[in-house]
TrEMBL record:
SMART domains: IG, IGv. The chain crosses the membrane at residues 257-275. Residues 20-136, 150-248 form the Ig-like domain. GO terms for biological process: regulation of cytokine production; T cell receptor signaling pathway. This is CD226 antigen-like. It comes from Pelobates cultripes (Western spadefoot toad). Pfam families: V-set (PF07686). The keyword Membrane applies.
Length: 276
């Protein structure tokens, strides 16, 4: 496969632009996740394939007096995780995405212990890239209770400092085996509901409250089928967040109905017992 001169001119110009001092994103990305979530830490360089000189490392940064922890290492075409910190064993996976030059890291089952600053470093023939990510694991679940046919208000707060430019928000209802149902989507300041499941059709609404930092969801005419765990997730160029909400649908009259029915049944049994 001979590469055309155009190909080399293209790469040389990119290399000249990128190599002098290496690239580091000055912006630290912020991610807020919920416990037990699987998260994807993004990292980008100029990578077209796995080359012999490609070196990627993910570290969890610690105080100056302590060594940083190795989260994931990749060298000479393969993972080098001999010195991977115990805390990250069997929980990491690196995903290459050539189209976008991404080397994202998947971290499964996060817990509060994983909170902290992560640093990704990429080295190859084209240069050196660094990206810092601050990860916080927040175990805050909102509980919402509503009666059947009422309108439920599911709160979701996003960090105002992320800004609202190009904010993507999606509401899902957690299903079994990670099969989540799309409840509501929000993209470029507009609803984006192509993936919405029929159960929620025409029953959802959401407003972006820029000053307060809310993207609450309104769910109309709820039924017991709507009970469950909802997850509000969003991101833009400054970071990402997740918020869990537990929705209970409780019929205040339901319990008294059941109580009356149960009492009648008991009385009938007693009466039958006496008669026979
Ligand atoms: C990334 O984090 C490390 C350790 O906290 C810090 O020394 C470095 O300056 C940060 N880099 C950027 C670009 O923020
Ligand atoms: C890597 O992360 C970026 C930024 O979040 C995302 O756009 C891209 O789709 C991800 N790629 C893979 C393969 O996960
Ligand atoms: C990771 O998986 C290996 C092989 O299944 C196992 O021996 C090891 O104990 C696991 N480590 C942790 C920290 O779970
Ligand atoms: C919400 O309910 C769950 C489960 O009942 C409970 O563990 C949690 O503490 C509650 N959260 C709040 C904020 O009340
Ligand atoms: C969103 O919900 C929260 C919590 O219930 C509430 O304090 C806030 O005012 C709501 N914001 C909007 C814009 O509805
Ligand atoms: C990211 O944050 C900066 C500073 O807070 C803000 O100026 C910028 O508009 C934000 N970016 C997006 C995509 O919202």
């Amino acid at each position: 496969m001979a590469a055309s001169p155009g190909y080399w001119i293209f790469w040389l110009s990119i290399m000249m632009y990128l190599t002098p001092s290496g690239h580091s994103e000055d912006k630290t990305l912020e991610m807020i996740a919920a416990p037990y979530e699987t998260i994807v830490l993004p990292c980008k360089g100029l990578i077209q394939s796995v080359t012999e000189d490609l070196h990627v490392s993910w570290m969890k940064m610690r105080a100056k007096t302590e060594n940083n922890l190795l989260v994931y290492g990749f060298e000479k075409g393969k993972p080098t995780n001999k010195h991977q910190a115990y805390q990250f064993q069997n929980r990491t996976e690196m995903v290459f995405d050539w189209s976008g030059s991404w080397v994202n890291l998947t971290l499964k089952d996060v817990t509060e212990l994983d909170s902290g600053v992560y640093q990704c470093q990429i080295y190859n023939e084209y240069g050196h890239w660094t990206q810092n990510i601050t990860l916080s694991i927040k175990d805050k679940t909102w509980n919402v209770t509503a009666a059947p046919h009422e309108t439920a208000h599911l709160p979701c707060k996003f960090p105002i400092k992320f800004g609202t430019d190009d904010l993507h928000v999606s509401w899902v209802k957690m299903g079994e085996k990670d099969k989540n149902l799309q409840v509501y989507g929000f993209k470029k300041q507009k609803p984006a509901n192509q993936q919405q499941v029929s159960q929620f059709k025409d029953r959802t609404e959401s407003d972006l409250d820029r000053s307060g930092g809310w993207v609450n969801l309104t769910l109309k005419d709820v039924t017991e089928m709507d009970s469950g765990i909802y997850r509000c997730q969003g991101y833009n160029a400054n970071g990402s967040w997740t918020q869990n909400i537990l929705l209970y649908i409780e019929d205040p009259k339901g319990r008294s109905h059941i109580f009356i029915i149960a009492s009648v049944v008991v009385i009938l049994i007693l009466v039958t017992a006496f008669v026979c």
